[in-house]
Design a protein that fits this description.
The structure holds two protein chains of two kinds. Chain A starts with 13 loop residues before the first helix and ends in a 9-residue tail after the last strand. Chain A is mainly α. Chain A has a domain of 37 residues. Chain A is 31% helix and 6% strand. Chain B has two domains: 120 residues; 132 residues, 2-Layer Sandwich (Alpha-Beta Plaits), CATH 3.30.70. Chain B is elongated and about 80 Å long. The chains are: A mainly alpha, B alpha+beta. Chains A and B meet through helix 1, strand 1, helix 2, helix 3 and strand 2 of A and helix 3, helix 4, strand 4, helix 5 and helix 7 of B. Strand 2 of chain A pairs antiparallel with strand 6 of chain B, so a sheet runs across the interface.
């Protein structure tokens, strides 16, 4: 019996959320906008911790896994 | 202009009219009510937040505070989820997108309208699923002729070196097997998805996973094909331990990872 791999609702891991909220989502720039892209988020410590600030890589099936 | 309040924006949807009810019960990153700001056929979901907590200087400091980051990210996600339950397609905005006032937000909707409408059209009726692959702890009894037997005593320097070389080979083979398993799994799931994105492997300090994260991917899947996709993940997850890996599924997410089209 394999446990359902979907975690129960409301138990999203912070790390998965940060992947998406810090590297995904629409980045809208403008003179009145302060967004993470413009804030030059993070000193080294948070960048190391989160590991999600780098842009996501486009993926073609089967041959582009990170080394 | 109100200098004590800013406007925190969460997401953009088509201005379909019936978002009000969905937003009635949800509160934003500062506990504030969230409303739809409508312009150019689009609706931006936004709420007033204190400038003292969300101006540039405050954000610079807060973004380095993991506790703040968690509270804010979860609140942001709550609003996106509430909107996603009511609208056919929701474009989440990047965390901490803050405007001075409603005029600024409306101006963005006008200026970026074409781009935003294109993204809403492209992602309409799609969900994002996340799949991660981790290495499992090494099995207790290694396979091979000497399985279970105590190691032969080291008799010479040559014995020692031979054993070290064998251990290195085993480790390398193990890593290759794991990478190959992740690659095959990704290729299989990619055939069930319209688009895919790869995130960098997650940091174990945040994920609290003992294993090495060898795949951290997002898949864009039409909503009605969600069950087919999650069934496939469940089957792969069942078979994965034989290859020394575990599989974790998250979602469905609003299409955070796909708001920008993949470069050709």
């Amino acid at each position: 019996m394999t446990p359902d791999p979907v975690p129960p609702a409301g138990r999203i891991a912070l790390v998965d959320l940060l992947d998406r909220l810090l590297a995904g989502g629409v980045v809208v720039a403008g003179d009145l906008t302060l967004s993470i892209a413009g804030v030059d988020l993070v000193r080294v410590d948070l960048r190391l911790l989160v590991g999600a600030v780098a842009a996501t890589l486009p993926a073609a099936p089967g041959k582009e896994l990170p080394p | 202009m109100n200098t004590t309040e800013l406007l925190y924006a969460y997401a953009v949807t088509q201005d379909a009219g019936d978002l009000g009810e969905a937003l009635e019960t949800v509160t934003g990153v500062a506990g504030e009510p969230v409303r739809a700001v409508r312009q150019a056929g689009l609706a931006a979901l936004a709420g007033p937040v204190p400038a003292a907590g969300f101006d540039e200087a405050a954000l610079r400091a807060s973004l380095e505070d993991l506790g703040w980051l968690e509270r804010t990210a979860r609140a942001h996600q709550r609003v996106v989820d509430a909107a996603a339950a009511a609208a056919p397609c929701v474009l989440p905005l990047r965390l901490a997108t803050v405007y001075r006032d409603e005029d600024g937000l409306r101006r963005m909707l006008t200026e970026r309208g074409q781009h935003l409408r294109a993204a809403l059209g492209r992602l309409d009726g799609r969900c994002e699923w996340g799949v991660k692959v981790y290495t499992l702890p090494p099995r207790a009894a290694p396979a091979g002729p000497s399985a279970g037997a105590p190691p032969a005593p080291v008799r010479s320097g040559r014995d020692y070196l031979r054993r070290r070389a064998a251990e290195r080979t085993t480790r390398r083979e193990e890593e290759q097997r794991v990478d190959e398993a992740a690659r095959t799994l990704h290729a299989t799931l990619a055939t069930l998805a319209e688009d895919t994105r790869l995130y960098p492997p997650q940091n174990p300090r945040l994920s609290r996973q003992p294993g090495r994260n060898v795949l951290n991917a997002a898949y864009l899947v039409p909503r009605e094909q969600g069950p087919r996709f999650t069934d496939a993940v469940a089957r792969l997850a069942e078979a994965a331990p034989a290859d020394g890996v575990g599989v974790e599924l998250t979602g469905p997410w609003a299409p955070y990872s796909f708001v920008t089209p993949a470069p050709p």
